[in-house]
Every structure is written in structure tokens, then in C-alpha cells.
Amino acid sequence: MLRAAMSQEMGRALVSVREKVQHAAARRAQSLPAVQPRVVAVSKTKPADMVIDAYSHGQRYFGENYVQELVEKASDANILSSCPEIKWHFIGHLQKHHINKLVAVPNLHVLETIDSVKLADKVNASWQRKGSPEKLKVMVQVNTSSEESKHGLHPSDTVELIRHLREKCPGLEFVGLMTIGSFGHDLAQGPNPDFQVLLKQREEVCEKLGLPMDAVELSMGMSADFEHAIEVGSTNVRVGSTIFGERVYSKPVKGEASAN
Ligand SMILES: *Cc1c(COP(=O)(O)O)cnc(C)c1O
């Protein structure tokens, strides 16, 4: 396809996602915080040109789940010059030996995948060494489906990790909870149970730590289910293929194994 046509198509996809987000937010229960949901455009496997294109169509938040790929895109000279207000979310599993690399990423906005006290301490130390005047925003990733293969913290450990973040990690700012959840839930069977687990987790966290509900974001929902996720309370959806098109995995990404 010609570049101009591709760019137009992406522009239309972004407009359509934004409309769906607005409509889904309007269908939320009154009891949920009326937070404007953020769309994080997940650009993994897609070239820098497509990020710049989406930015030119007004997109500001982008997500990546491999550290090396994020480092390359976030420091790409064209992205740096064309996208001054870009904000990157890291949404993949973070291995300890990649922390320093991640922390150095320009325009890193939120690290969504803290899932242990050890990781929190190491990220905190690395961020403090960097000497940034601002705290690094972090979310805690919860393994809501309790599948062995999934990263994330067991729900029963969430409150203690957040207490630790708030009391022992002065370089980090806890901003919310994140889940990937099991794939392929059939909404005809009712609400996605993973999202319900995350909502319950927020209630418990707010009650035990005395936090207001609107101070704890929920990152849940992807291309297949972002509207449902927003209806039930998501404040941060991570949408990849609906914006950028299907991903083609032609060669394995160097040095990293799994997507989640
Ligand atoms: C790839 C990815 C997404 C986006 O998936 P789509 O189905 O393409 O929208 C969202 N969240 C995480 C953690 C991902 O790895």
C-alpha cells in the first residue's frame, strides 16, 4: 500500500478507537471514577515511521514490551525530533539486567509491570542513581488469572507490594494496577473475570492503604476487549493491532523470550 494511503488508514483507525473509547466511558456505572481513559498505542514490531505517523494524527502515548525495541524507538532521531511530547509506557516483563537500560529511555512515562519487591527495589535504586527530579510512575502487574505462564504478582501479595512502593521506594510513584488476563474470554458468557479481579484488588488496596479510588488507575483491555474494559472501569487501554494492523513476527527479537 502507498504510504499516504496507509497513513490515512491509521488516522481513521485512531479516530474510530477514540470514538469507541468515548462511548464506552459514557456507559460506565456511576459508581466508577469518571476518569478519562488513556489510549496507549502499542507499537511493538512496528517501525518508527508508523509511530511518527500516529503521533501526527494526535496520538501521544505509546507502549512497547521489549526493552531493546523501546530503547531503539525512543532514541530514534526522527522520533525525537518529530514527537517532542511522546510518552512511552513499558508494558512487558522486565528482567533485572535490563533495568538500567529501561531507566535511561528518553520520555519514559509509566512502567506498568512491577511485580515483586525485589524488582521495585532495583528499579527504585536505578532511578535514584539517575538523579531525575521527578518520580518514575509505576503500576503493579497482577496475575489475575493465576496462570503459571503469566507474569505478575499473585493477587494476595498486591497490598504489601504497594505498601512497600509507597514507604520504601521514594523514587517511584505508585499510580495503578495492570493486568493482561487470559486471552479469548467470550463476553457472551458475562464480564471478563480478570477485569473483575483487578477491580476487587483496587477496592482492597484503597481500603487497606486509605487511598481514594481515583488515585489508582486500572490498565486493562487490548484490541479485542478495550470497550468492555472501559465499561467496567479501565482507565488505560493498550491497543496495538487495531491501530497499527496485525503484527508479523518474522524473526525472533534478540535476547528476549516472551511477550508477557
Ligand atoms: C501486544 C500487547 C498489547 C496489544 O495487543 P493488541 O491485541 O494488538 O491490541 C497490549 N498489552 C500488552 C501487554 C501487549 O503485550
From TrEMBL:
Cited InterPro entries: Ala_racemase_N, PLP-binding_barrel, PyrdxlP_homeostasis
Record keywords, A-Z: Pyridoxal phosphate
Positions of the Alanine racemase N-terminal domain: 23-247
Mitochondrion among keywords: no
UniProt superkingdom: Eukaryota
N6-(pyridoxal phosphate)lysine modified-residue sites: K44
Any one GO molecular-function label of the UniProt entry: pyridoxal phosphate binding
Cofactor needs: pyridoxal 5'-phosphate
Keyword Lyase on entry: no
Family annotation (HAMAP family): PLP_homeostasis
Family of this protein: Belongs to the pyridoxal phosphate-binding protein YggS/PROSC family.
Function noted in UniProt: Pyridoxal 5'-phosphate (PLP)-binding protein, which may be involved in intracellular homeostatic regulation of pyridoxal 5'-phosphate (PLP), the active form of vitamin B6.
Protein name: Pyridoxal phosphate homeostasis protein
Organism: Eleutherodactylus coqui (Puerto Rican coqui)
